[in-house]
Amino acid sequence: MSQPATADLVISGGRVIDPASGFDGVADVAVSEGRIIQVGANLAVPDAGRTIDARGLLVVPGLIDMHAHVYTHMGVSIDPDLAGVRSGVTTIVDAGTAGPYTWGPFMHNVIATAQTRTLAFLHIGRTGQSSIPEIRSAEDIDLAATIQTARDHPGVILGIKLRAVGPAVATMGGSMVDLTRQAARESGGRQMIHIGDFDAGPGDPAITREVVTRLDAGDVLSHIFTDRHGSLLDERGRILPEVLEARDRGVVMESSPGRGNFSFAAARQLLDLGLLPDVIATDITTPGRGWLVYSLPEVMSRFMALGFSLTDVIRMTTVAPANVLGLGDSIGALAPGREADVTLLREEHGSWIFRDLNDATLPGDTALVPVLTVRAGELIVPDWGPHPWGWLPESDGS
User: Fold this and answer.
1) How many whole angstroms separate alpha carbon 277 and alpha carbon 252?
2) Which candidate, 195, 123, 134, 185, places its Cα nearest to that of 160?
3) What is the DSSP string of 6-61?
4) What is the distance between the alpha carbons of residues 60 and 392, in angstroms, rounded to a whole number?
5) Residue 262 in contact with residue 226, Cβ under 8 Å?
6) Would strands 378-380 and 63-68 be described as parallel, antiparallel, or unpaired?
């Protein structure tokens, strides 16, 4: 193996797992001037400026949280760095907190100042989630402003978000999805559509079938494991056929729990029926960091408790979201020439329980704990953690 150029940082001796390349083994990662210059075993790096001993740790591409709410001080949004680099996440995507009328302060006061790479889906509702429900009628959508705002911020705004819930389901039906699709296509992005309405009452309409038939390859269907009104299961407990058709044509299946859209029972049922998530995320907010969600590493641990492998959950939080977002050539992998976004995790074994919105519990024996975040070569230490005791999930008491 050729000798790398002088590095200012070497992450040494960790278990490197890079699903993008298929590599899984003990190796070093050499970084110079904020970029990865080489990955391999026993690198002979002359005059390394700093060496991190990663023995016993997992070294993975910088984690990507593709669904969060980080418009600081807007509603229940969380600070992007608290949910981001202080939690092992190097890239975070705000899922529609801002609409075109509220975008400016978000861009200039939050996105531009965060250490975490912060990207966004723009809400089709003109003021975003500054108030809930965001859309009551067509008057709450300014299509021209949405398209123009997205066009004005290429590379930051990745698509258009809609929550297919609330009063607009009755007043607009599938037409609000049509407007979202038009805005996404005319601004060069993709759709992200939220399903699962926890405010709906008996007899209220649901438009899940209409949503999924309007999604194309690369569009994102969020909260696939919800058991709320408008879930992916019919009254007989079968997957809606339109959902399977959408999956087969390349619609992205995303599972983020948030505080109200994840059920273990629904997840088990859908998994048993063969519907797997392509991407896992958090839908984290400030309250969510203290209840049910906690962090992306804990969501990854939850999915391991559901039966996914360590490699699975790393893939679904690195290369998979990178490719979905059209950024697979720049993030989501450990490769020479890439910006040095790296997450160091500790894999802990014990007895924990995870809870869903119905307070159902699931036992787990593996937990992932963030140890160090490397963002563009800069070292950032995670904070104390979302629980009073730190990062580990709730103990089962044994």
Assistant:
1) 8
2) 123
3) P-SEEEEEEEEEETTTTEEEEEEEEEETTEEEEEETT---TT-S-EEE-TTSEEEE
4) 19
5) yes
6) unpaired
Gap between the Cα atoms of 81 and 108, Å rounded: 15
Rounded to an integer, what is the distance from CA 351 to the centroid of its chain? Answer: 26
Report the chain's C-alpha Rg in angstroms: 21
Residue 101 is encoded by which pair of tokens?
């009328």
As a three-state string, the secondary structure of 134-180 is CCCCHHHECHHHHHHHHHHCECCEEEEEEECCCHHHHHCCCHHHHHH
Tokens found for residue 27: 């190796």
Answer yes or no: are the C-beta atoms of 143 and 183 closer than 8 Å: yes
Rama region for 223: left / alpha / beta (φ>0; ψ in -120 to 50; rest)? left
Q: How far apart are alpha carbons 353 and 373 in whole angstroms?
A: 26
Tokens of 175: 């037409």
Strands (E), 256-295: 279-280
Per-residue pLDDT tens listing for the chain (398 residues): 445 468 999 999 999 999 999 999 999 999 999 999 999 998 887 667 899 999 999 999 999 999 999 999 999 999 999 999 999 999 999 999 999 999 999 999 999 999 999 999 999 999 999 988 999 999 999 999 999 999 999 999 999 999 999 999 999 999 999 999 999 999 999 999 999 998 888 788 889 999 999 999 999 999 999 999 999 999 899 999 999 999 999 999 999 999 999 999 999 999 999 999 999 999 999 999 999 999 999 999 999 999 999 999 999 999 999 999 999 999 999 999 999 999 999 999 999 999 999 999 999 999 999 999 999 999 999 999 999 999 999 999 86
Q: In angstroms, what CA-CA distances link 196 with 45, 205, 269, 345?
A: 52, 12, 16, 32
Nearest to 133 by CA among 225, 67, 227, 199: 199
Q: How many residues does the chain have?
A: 398
Place of tokens 């492998």: 309
Long-range Cβ contacts of 45-48 (<8 Å, 24+ apart): 45/3, 45/4, 45/6, 45/7, 45/10, 46/3, 46/6, 47/6, 48/6, 48/7, 48/8, 48/9, 48/10
Distance CA 37, CA 40 (A): 10
Provide the 3-class DSSP secondary structure of residue 283.
Answer: coil
What's the rounded Cα separation, in Å, for the pair 25 and 280? 24
